[in-house]
Amino acid sequence: MPTYELKNTVQRYDWGSHSFIPELLGEQVPSAEPQAELWMGAHPKASSEALVDGRWKPLTGLIGSDPARWLGAPVSSRFRQELPFLLKVLAAERPLSMQAHPNRAQAARGFQAEEDRGVPRGAPERNYKDPNHKPELLAALIPFDALCGFRPPAQTAELFRALDVAALRPYAECLGEEPAGLRRAFSELMRLDAQNRQSLIASLVDACSRLSTEVGEFSGACRWVAELGRLYPSDPGVVTALMLNHVRLEPGEALFLPAGNLHLYLRGAGIEIMANSDNVLRAGLTSKHIDLEELLNILDLSTGRPPLITLVPADGVEKVYPTPTEEFRLSRLELEPTKSWRCPERRGPEILICVSGTAEIRELGRPPHELHRGRSLFVTGDAGAYEGTGTATLFRATAGRT
Fold first, then answer.
1. Could you tell me which of 79, 76, 88 has the C-alpha nearest to residue 45?
2. 397 class by beta-carbon count within 10 Å (0-12 exposed, 13-18 middle, 19+ buried)
3. CA-to-CA distance for 19 and 377, rounded, in angstroms?
4. Looking at residue 257, what is its pLDDT?
5. Exposed site from 6, 191, 249, 289, fewest CB < 10 Å?
6. 190: CB partners within 8 A, 6+ apart
7. Is 223 a catalytic residue?
8. How confident is the model at residue 301 (pLDDT cuts 50, 70, 90)?
């Protein structure tokens, strides 16, 4: 049967949760180390393994040995014989770094430039790990907080004035100088010297703590910036985080982040899907490499609140999160005893993960795979139609459409 159980890598970053992923996988809670991301896919940094004929084999190698079979001929041809998406469970107990991702042309250009300069691919100062872009979608499994996308400059200027911090007043004026004011204010705040930056952050923590208790559109952002200031008392990202929209996702809601969107995941857990890339340009709240000039080259400075993505019915059981991305499509299946599901069309390779209950996945005429909570399956691109039964919630990752 061209459907295979997966064994996946857990990434233990220091911002991860000690409970969400271990509980999902049926392991000891709390875990000894934070568990931040569960990777499902064929990224060379941490490929999943598939159970083939009783042996675990890296998915990267299986795809490389027969891409037409594992990906299906159309997807193999479109995406250079590579699985085009990476699926994750992300669980944040502490804020991640503030970051943005390049578009496809920027990634290809930046990757080649670093190759030409001989920058080792594993070097900490390397910006581009591969030539791919990295649009991404995060669907909340529990309430999820993020800061993302620049707030309209007039609103940020209003916030700066409301905070009543003397060092921010010049930037409130700067934000009124359209169209270059936002870029200037952001870049100057990022370049503040250490002494002035630390003094400003100390004042911001006090001011944001005060404003976070008031009812208003800025209270959520101020609450998080006050926490960021206590965690990172000398990091420029604390100040520029004030310029971003605060977004609260409820379970089932999703956020789509196109290229150039500056964002910061704060706390929560969800299913994340992205193009199969590891390109990240960081802006702060991290000990990792920050290349401000390159970040400014790829940053999207258009403003406004990013729209939330909600599920759209695809059929009676499957609902999809619509995005414009050709590399991936994410949908959710709600199986019940009276609501089995038959895959209506094949879109190439698929990954299924169960987040609650138990499902049976059966290719017609073959024995089923039992899919328990926390377990995942890879469905090859050359598989036939299949159906799912049981009582379970599944997420289905597939390639998108051109």
1. 88
2. buried
3. 23
4. 94
5. 191
6. 236, 240, 283, 284, 292
7. no
8. very high
**Upstream peptide bond of 30 is cis (omega within 30 degrees of 0):** yes
Map tokens 């005893």 to a residue: 337
Among 197, 267, 282, 346, the one annotated catalytic: 282
Tokens 């401000």 belong to: 292
Count CB atoms within 10 A of the CB of residue 389: 18
**Is the pLDDT reported for residue 365 higher than 90?**
no
- As a whole number, mean pLDDT of residues 43-68 equals 95
Q: Residue holding tokens 């049976």?
A: 360
Tokens of 376: 């995942």
